[in-house]
Protein 1
Amino acid sequence: MVSIIVCMKVVMDPELPLSEFAVDRKQLRPIPPKGTPPLMNPFDENALEAALKIKDVQECKITILSMGSSLPKAVLQIPLATGADEIITVEDAQFEHLDAINTAHALAAAIERIGNYDLVFTGRQASDWDSGVTWAGIAELLNIPSVTIARKADVKDGKVIIERNGSDGVEIVECSLPALITFSSEVGELRYPTLPALQKAKKKEIRRWSASYIDFNKTRVMKIRDLYVPDFGAADCHFVLGADPEQKGRELARTLIENGTIPSQI
Amino acid sequence: MEGDENVLIVGEIEGGHLSALTTQLLRIGKELSSALDGRLHLVLLTGKNEEVGAEGFRYGADRVYAAIHQLLGQYTTDAYLQALEQVVTNLRPSIILFGHTDRGSDLAPRLAFRLKTGVTLDCVGLAIDEETGRLEQIKPVFGGKAHCHYLCIGASPQIASVRDGIFDPADYQHGATGQVTLLPVSIEPSSIRTRLVGTRPDEDLAIGQKLGSASIVVSGGRGLKNREGVEILKETAELLGGAVSGSRPAIDYGWLPGSLQVGLTGKKIKPQLYIAVGISGALQHMAGCLKSKVIVAINSDESAPIFRFSRYGVVDDWKEVLKGFNDEVKRVRE
């Protein structure tokens, strides 16, 4: 049986429009938007989907690992409803606004606590701070090999076979177990949970661990000096007008040809 | 050692030359090393002795190092990390810069953890903080909605990867020469835990590669509504001798292959003309196309953020607009 730990982070909705996004420049953190609930990092959902694809074809146990200060139950139930076997959370007040380096230390410690695993899957980055660093820390601290931005993973003969997009085509990489693999949208979106599965997931137990249980101690290597919404420049768009959409289209073409943006001949 | 305030660039070789991004790193690296009264060093990791090292001097490097080992001929994270760890222990740079490439984004963070230091990836600005003398690392966060300035305070070296196209290439000085210094590295073959067993050609990936060189790109998003919409974009692209791409929804819905995704985690392109059709203009998308010379937006929602970034805008049903557009281009060319 293959044991996969999928690390998943609860994030602010990355689709939140700029007009509703704000930061607290003193506290150096974003202001949680009202009315837009948090969700699972989409790249972590891709990682879960990759794990579920392995489970589709062979015996496999999927453990979700998530950490934070107080994780919303509704978000945690989705991975269980799509086919994950269990979920472990490490929740502690000091995990609020934790940076990537500390997150990696905490997750690696939690994975060591879980103990028995063949694969660790993560998203390529979390869509809040976009750091792209946590996966590397987990792999380095656990001293396991890593392959990034895979589009597929299969376990065969005690090895993992990974497909990833390379510059000369699809690279097929073989890697010994245990290993850490990161995923992105190439895998495809996480399958939808069925309604009965969601009902069942609500009844499943969430194993909650604390920071002290995993022997976590915060370190301070990186410091945020400033956080702000940059000036995106004043809108300077020339709107092309016309009596109807087709005429607007013709006018746009004329403008772009006249100023040489589009060659008048090919 | 000649001071500890040196900047080390981890270069990449492309087609027998330093990659464009490496020459950009040499420009910003020079600025930083000058501010620190330090030197600018370039290191190349490679499988065989190459002429390309000397190019480093012509782009302003004070010293060029080459770590040559048979096991560095084929990229593996394990071999490159081992080699880099030895290079860094040997040279003791204060700052290490990578290009934010497939390789750089793989190596930089693992190296940081191995050296028990900090790292910031995909930086769009770098400066020496006057107060502390540390490297101020500016990075877009929250999909580009905010910028964050980081300092690595608790450890050294300071490591960052830099986004392509942010800095100009360093000036090229024809006469500059120097001797490339060979750095011995030892790599334990049994410690390499991944192996490239093959490469399969992929039509979609090949199409994606062409996207980077297209001078006109017609791109579609959620507003296309369906796969048929892509066919209309293709017609326009063909007419203009350009290429088609999409924002993330167009890829997630399966209308276009992932290799044609433009954005923060997709391709970053800078064509002469970028026509955004039914794309709202989320910053995650704009990160991939903002460097285009002219951006044109066609969207039925006049409040769509895309118009903030566009030189020309059309507010209307995109299908009808493109029809008129195509007709006019054909008419002029007849």
Note: The two ends of chain B are 69 Å apart (CA to CA).
Protein 2
Amino acid sequence: MRLSYLALVGAPLAAALAAALVRPYLRGVGAAGALLSTLSLVAALRLAGQVLAGATPTWGPSEMMRVDALSALLAVCVAFVAALAAWLGPGLGRDERYTPAQARRFRIFSSLFAFTMLIAVTANNVAIMWVAVEATTIASALLIPLHVSKASVEASWKYILIGSVGIALAFVGTVLGYFDYVHLAGERESALNWTSLMAAAPSMHPRVMALAFVFIVIGYGTKAGLAPMHTWLPDAHAEAPAPLSAMMSGVLLAVALYAIIRWKVVVDLTVGSTLPDRLLLVLGLASLAVAALSLIGQRQYKRLLAYSSIEHTGLMCVGLGLGPLGAFAALLHLVNHAVAKGMMFLLSGRILDRYHTTEMGEVSGLLRVMPVTGGLFAAGMLALAGLPPFGIFFSKLSLVRAGFATGHPWLMAFVLVLLLAAVIAMLAQINRMLYGAPPDGVRVGESNRWGLVPLALCAILLVAFGLGGFGAFQTLLDRAVAIVSR
Amino acid sequence: MARGALALLQGLLVLALAPGVVGLVRWLKARLQNRRGAPAWQPYFELRKLFGKEVVVSENASWLFRAAPYVVFVSTAAAALLVPVLAVPLPIDAVGDLLVVVYLLLLGTVFLALAGLDPGSAFGGMGSSREMTVAALAEPTVALAIFALALSAGSTNLGQIVARTMADPAAAVSPGYLLAFGALFVVTLAENGRLPVDNPATHLELTMIHEAMILEYSGRYLALIEWAAWLKVLLFFSLLGNLFVPWGVATVLTWAALGWALATLLAKLVVLAVALAVFETRVAKLRLFRVPELLAVSFVLAVLAITVSFLVR
Amino acid sequence: MDSAFGHLTVLGSSLVLLCGLTLLWRRGSAAHIGAFAAQSVALAATAGLIAVVTGSRELWVVAVILLGLKGILMPILLKRMDRRFGGPRELEPYVNTATSLVIGGLLVVLAYIVTWPILDVSRLPTRAGMPLAMGLIFVSLFVIISRKKALTQVIGFLALENGIALLAMLGTYGIPFIVEMGVFLDALMGFLVMQIVIYRIQETFESIDVEQLNRLSQ
């Protein structure tokens, strides 16, 4: 048990240290980093297996770290996308796009980024979780301007300022929760453990916890990209290098949502689920509306993907506010989105390298220039749009069913209209990119074919999730939903 | 009977002390600026001189010009009677409390501003408009700052506020009191035309506010207005001293208590005069459009004082 | 004794809040850095006072670190940044000073309303200062959104952290030691990263006027 956990979090940390200590940068370090990320993924899968077998591994003094079904699910997602980024990121192959210094910086900070995210999802202590989420901001902010330009510097400033402010507000919520617990049960080392909070939840003061939850949602919601705190997201995700965007869009938003989920479970027990559900519904709908409206008329494909992330996070948020069935939809959506968005951003990186432009108007004939990339890109776009046989179709279906089940038919109608608008906007743009004649000066033919293998694997996974998934995955998902909707 | 005598005593006392306090401030400022300075009782000589001089009135002036000095003087003197100086309960507090004091001061301010406009001179109008800008922000702050104290005391009667603070010494260091003190101190500077709001010794067009309004006055009118201004300083000093550090104020009407009250009053006045002199020497005059910012600060301090006193039991 | 302790902590909290309001009042960077340094010292003093009365050694360490890190080290770094960038001494903020101050006062009143349920729950003698801490949090948020210089936004953020630390101190006499250390480390790292980003901004934009960061707008 312990070994798996150590491997899970130790591997990315070791990768970061290796990259930091070895000067000048050697490709071997990148390769070591990629292998370590795979080790981390394997460890995550093993932990998931242990959880499925009925254990709940804990680690650290006063059980600081704890892996239950929800943590295991997210840990696997994080490790998977981190592994993708490690294998396809700069510094591995012969790469003229990035200088060795840039590659080294990427290796250090992306590994640290993965490390902090893994700590966040496996922390039992909500304060450790907070520290880890704050650390993710710090680790990723320095990577956004990997290619220094006015746009990327502006994006990184907005990211770190707004992100830090949001995290600070989340800390206020954490302090308020701790305050309530302490006044109930007295100070103890394990006072900030989620398990202790859960046990004490029914007897805590509703108004204090409600206030705390508002701060938590606004705070972590800023990191998750919920409107109206989303203004940093399109800039940051669009300007960052592709592997970093993949990690940020794919799993960082999910980690922030995970933090909200953990607190929601506690607050539901204290306050009842009406207030938290309503709050999440409002914010989710706002994000959905903002994203749908902004997708129409989007001209750059990376920003398109970023707004799509806001849309999907909004959907997940709506799902969380719709009871157990909605929670199931949200978690299924979370996993599918992580894989799909990770794949899409990495593909967009390949497109950027070939076409040297982020404007969708200037990209054409993708299927002719890079057939496999184009095909995977199209598949990913269809997946994000929620078309069958991809998994997101089923999670959206479950969401709508959950909405009807909890008595929000008009709400679901509104959601469907917004989704339709988003889908049309995205698919129209993708068509223009895929077909037509390639512009002059663009080399035809795939480069770095081996890099396509992990991406194709992602596409296969998306289809597999849609067709019913693996039995083990289903069970894990069900257990996670059980935790969320106690 | 005793209360009537006390009222008379208080009235005479404030009238007599006011020029001395301002004279002391001027002398201290001179000394701090390395000058010899006129002695502290120079203002008495100024009053005597002005009362003996002829009055020169502009042709364009109306009855307002002649009436204003009296209105200003009487209203300020009346306000000074309603402020705790020597003893509580105040002799005529059946008639007035905090709000009456504020209104009386405002009456004086408005009449002075009108009198500045009346002769039609450029300086006068300019001074009046500047004065009203300052007064618009400063007057409510006076009320709010003392209101914060009134909330704790449960009444706007100034005598009761003093009595309550004497009964509960710990309240004197409560943040509500300290914030109110800060607000009131800034307002004292603004209302009395002290640095950094206004320079009482300047006659430069760019910088004067109070002096501009009274530029046309001479003789006994000027004497009355100057005396009223000094009374205002003493009034605010009494408020600052006796509301926030009320120990020494007499609660019984015996000669011993009154004597002790007089002694402590003089001590507080000296301390405040020193503080004011040091402060004025230290700061530079604010540019006119920055004055509202300073007054906004004092307003916010007063609001905070009320919030802190009200919402924390 | 208890009442005096309560009064003194509220006094300390008021000073901390007033320094935060000074950020809205004064305009130059030097004044802002001075206000932040004074605020951190007041905060450290309050922490020390609570440490003395409750006998908590952890709070002593917190007070010392607050003094050293936020009272001395960060103002020095901030002054160095200010000297390097210079820039216009006073940038007109989005909201003018008098209005900002009035809004600041209103935010403190709002903070009192918001923390009402907390005051009901807490039985500690220090609870009277909690609304002031929450007020500082709101005022700092307002500073961040209404000021144009990146340096001022960073100082606003640091003041926000001070407010949260004060809230934790007054509400629960501090948070568990490990967490406190993690928070400090995060704060320091965050500050250093912000420094680095501001250097980058200065390099690419040749000014730290946030209004110039407007290329990404769709």
Note: The two ends of chain C are 60 Å apart (CA to CA).
